[in-house]
């Protein structure tokens, strides 16, 4: 069995996700290490109000996802590949052992602050479902003619496209998409315009935070959803993490590549189950499971059966 761990991005956060880690020894240890390193009580980030802050959300997701990956490893469930969506690239890199946990937390805190300070309000992302990429691009051009500028951010499937921009422009584009018979077109629970040129300047600024951070060659294969390929040299992963906030996500292409590499089990690390649905769409013959929807005993039994 060839196993992929997927790590979710923003929009999957939920109050209580860090407190759930306290049921596990590994979870308690990693929460305590985060407290010590950040000099704050990270469990205080675990409320709906606190998670409205971009820095808090990114830190909480990183702690939660990395901790659950380590909990799986404590139950002898090891990944062959790790793949993160947006902020999920950071717990993926930590899990691949090319970046230390504490160093990752420092980078994520700065990333969140840079993005929040650049766009404190009025910007977001939206998902358009049921239209092709070509059609969405045509609608973006049509909206731009009315001074509503938006950008393709994520190509999740051939008919699930995520766009970024200011809220008024996104609402205008969603209305056009629904008129064009999109199945759904709606804003996401994300308060920054990720994966587009609007964050290019912040990505360049973020590079300064990496100057003193050591990177090692991964011991588990790291996959970039922006480049749609596996990355081994530390310098390539370093560059991937710096610029991933401003680079387009090619999830569909990435997962198709992993299918060709023989992935037979995809486990979405908590929180959420969005990536599981995307994996099922692009890898129908692969077993795709969201940890949020499964218990560890059943997952251990599955791995023993097919491992």
Automatic annotation (TrEMBL):
Keywords: Acyltransferase, Transferase. InterPro entries: Ac_transferase_dom_sf (IPR001227), Acyl_transferase_dom (IPR014043), Acyl_Trfase/lysoPLipase (IPR016035), Mal-CoA-ACP_Trans/PKS_FabD (IPR050858), Malonyl_CoA-ACP_transAc (IPR024925), Malonyl_transacylase_ACP-bd (IPR016036). GO terms for molecular function: [acyl-carrier-protein] S-malonyltransferase activity. It comes from the Bacteria. Its EC number is 2.3.1.39. It is an enzyme of class 2 (transferase). PANTHER family: MALONYL-COA-ACYL CARRIER PROTEIN TRANSACYLASE, MITOCHONDRIAL (PTHR42681). Belongs to the fabD family. This is Malonyl CoA-acyl carrier protein transacylase.
């Amino acid at each position: 069995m060839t196993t992929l761990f997927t790590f979710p991005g923003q929009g999957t956060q939920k109050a209580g996700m860090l407190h759930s880690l306290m049921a596990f020894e590994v979870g308690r240890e990693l929460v305590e290490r985060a407290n010590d390193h950040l000099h704050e009580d990270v469990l205080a980030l675990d409320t709906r109000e606190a998670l409205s802050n971009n820095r808090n959300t990114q830190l909480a997701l990183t702690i939660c996802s990395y901790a659950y990956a380590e909990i799986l490893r404590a139950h002898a469930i090891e990944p062959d590949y790790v793949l993160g969506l947006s902020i999920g690239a950071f717990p993926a890199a930590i899990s691949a052992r090319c970046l230390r946990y504490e160093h990752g937390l420092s980078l994520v805190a700065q990333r969140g602050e840079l993005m929040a300070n650049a766009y404190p309000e009025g910007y977001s992302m939206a998902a358009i479902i049921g239209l092709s990429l070509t059609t969405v691009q045509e609608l973006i051009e049509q909206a731009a003619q009315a001074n509503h500028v938006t950008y393709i951010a994520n190509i999740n499937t051939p008919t699930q496209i995520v766009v970024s921009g200011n809220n008024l422009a996104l609402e205008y584009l969603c209305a056009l998409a629904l008129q064009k018979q999109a199945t759904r077109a709606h804003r996401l629970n994300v308060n920054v315009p990720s994966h587009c040129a609007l964050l290019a300047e912040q990505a360049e600024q973020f590079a300064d935070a990496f100057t003193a951070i050591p990177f090692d060659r991964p011991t588990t294969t790291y996959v970039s959803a922006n480049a749609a390929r596996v990355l081994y040299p530390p310098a390539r992963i370093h560059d991937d993490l710096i610029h991933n906030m401003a680079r387009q996500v090619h999830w569909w292409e990435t997962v198709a590549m992993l299918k060709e590499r023989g992935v037979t089990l995809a486990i979405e690390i908590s929180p959420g189950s969005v990536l599981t649905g995307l994996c099922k769409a692009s890898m129908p013959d692969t077993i795709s499971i969201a940890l949020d929807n499964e218990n560890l005993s059943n997952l251990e039994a599955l791995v023993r059966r097919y491992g």
